[in-house]
């Protein structure tokens, strides 16, 4: 096979265990892969399909998601570890999140701490807080 010829795709099973590697992955299908107890700090993931991905017990501080479709996403139990969790620290405080230029149309926010939240330059048509139209509240 010539040096510049592409190899035929194969279904090899690759395991990385207790190793430090920098992976450059392109044009690859990693469907059904499992990533457990690993560090991916400062990784750059671009032009990716990640439907059905589930991230559990993760530190995603300073995560940036740009140009993504999140329709149907279910984001829950976000914040500092709760009392009883091994990483619980009563002095720890969650750093603020920032949502900018997002289409949250039809979304639901339930049982969340929204203290000191600032909403500006947003379309609030039909938005309700505890069943009360925000537009009506603002008119008063």
Task: Report on the architecture of this protein.
This protein has 140 residues and is low in regular secondary structure. It contains 1 helix and 2 strands; from the N terminus they run ββα. The protein has a two-stranded antiparallel ribbon with strand order 1-2. β1 and β2 form a beta hairpin. The longest helix is centred in the C-terminal third of the chain and has 6 residues. It is extended.
Secondary structure category? little secondary structure
What's the main sheet like? 2 strands, antiparallel
Number of strand elements:
2
Helix segment tally? 1
Level of helix content? under 10%
Sheet with the most strands: spatial strand order? 1-2
Termini separation comes to 76 Å
- The global form is extended
Radius of gyration in whole Å, from Cα? 21 Å
* Topology order in helix (H) and strand (E) letters: EEH
Q: What is the residue-mean pLDDT, rounded to a whole number?
A: 88
Strand content: under 5%
Poorly predicted spans: 1-5
Describe the structure concisely.
With 140 residues, this protein is mostly loops. It has one helix and two strands.
How is the topology of this model organized?
Layout: E1 128-129, E2 132-133, H1 134-139
Antiparallel strand pairs: 1-2
Keywords:
140 residues; little secondary structure; two-stranded antiparallel ribbon; 4% helix; extended; disordered N terminus
């Amino acid at each position: 096979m010539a040096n510049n010829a592409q190899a035929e795709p194969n279904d090899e099973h690759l395991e990385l265990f207790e190793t430090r590697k920098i992976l450059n992955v392109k044009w690859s299908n990693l469907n059904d892969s499992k990533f457990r107890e690993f560090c991916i700090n400062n990784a750059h993931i671009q032009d990716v399909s990640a439907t059905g991905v589930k991230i559990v017990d993760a530190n995603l501080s300073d995560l940036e998601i740009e140009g993504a479709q999140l329709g149907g996403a279910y984001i829950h139990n976000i914040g500092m570890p709760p009392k009883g969790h091994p990483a619980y620290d009563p002095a720890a405080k969650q750093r603020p999140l920032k949502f900018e230029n997002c289409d949250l149309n039809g979304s639901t926010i339930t049982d969340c701490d929204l203290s000191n939240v600032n909403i500006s330059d947003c379309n609030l048509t039909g938005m309700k807080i505890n069943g009360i139209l925000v537009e009506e509240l603002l008119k008063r």
